Amino acid sequence: MPQHKSAAKRVRQNRRRRERNRMHRSKMRTLVKKVRMEKNPEIAQQLLNEVKSYIDSLVNKGVIHANKAARYKSRLERRVKSLQG
Q1: Is 1 helix (H, G, I), strand (E, B) or coil?
Q2: Tens of pLDDT along 32-65?
Q3: Distance between CA 54 and CA 4 in Å, rounded?
């Protein structure tokens, strides 16, 4: 247990941030899964644009690392491109 008021506040803040980050990561994974499962190239491209935008927002918020975001986006791009080819 925290011994100081500031430490107690830090615990509360960390809990809220952890829950918020978990929610954002979960949503990101769900969106990525939707793109991977999509068979229609047009719909997949539309979903891909949404996912890329969401992933970029998570990088700006500090939820995920920039390299991880780039890796996700690159793999999804290849997947969608293979549907069109």
Answers
A1: coil
A2: 999 999 999 999 999 999 999 999 999 999 999 9
A3: 37
Question: Distance between CA atoms of 50 and 79, rounded to whole angstroms?
Answer: 15
Q: Judging by beta carbons within 10 Å of its beta carbon (0-12, 13-18, 19+), is residue 69 exposed, middle or buried?
A: buried
Domains of the chain from N-terminus onward? 5-84 (1.20.58.110)
Residues sharing a CB contact under 8 Å with residue 31, sequence separation 6 or more, in sequence order: 47, 50, 51, 54
End-to-end Cα distance, the chain: 58
Cβ 36 vs Cβ 79: under 8 Å: yes
Which pTM value belongs to this model?
A: 0.88
Return the half-sphere exposure (C-beta side, CA atoms, 13 A cut-off) of residue 62. 2
